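Sample intake sheet
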Amino acid sequence: MEIAVEGGCNECHRLFHAEVDSNGRYSCPHCGKEYTEDSIPKRFIQEQRPPIPTNSKPVWDMVIEDMKARDNLGRERYGTPLQIDNGRDFLIDAYQESLDLVVYLRGEIEKRRNNVS
C-alpha cells in the first residue's frame, strides 16, 4: 500500500503532495527540502488504495450537472450569466460562500455525532 503525504513545506511554504519512500522519507517537490515520515503530524499522512470501479454515476458528472443547474438558476434569478466586471467582488463572494460551507459542514458533523437524522 502506498503512503502519500499532503502538507506544507517549512522551507518554501508551499502546499504539496508527495509519496513516502520505503525508508519513510519524502521531499517537497517545489524546493526539494527533505522530510521523514515522522516530521509532520500524522493527520497529513494518508494511506490510500487505488479506487475500484463501481456502477455508480461518476461524481464529476454529478458536479457538472449541478454547475449547469446553478448557472441556469442564476441566469433566471439575475437575468444575466455570471461574468467578470459585473460590479461584484468575486473574492468577497467566494469567501462568504466558503463561510457558509464551513457552517454547513460543521452542522453535519454535529448531526452525525449526535445521530440526528
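Comment: DSSP finds two helices and five strands in the chain. The chain has a mean pLDDT of 86.
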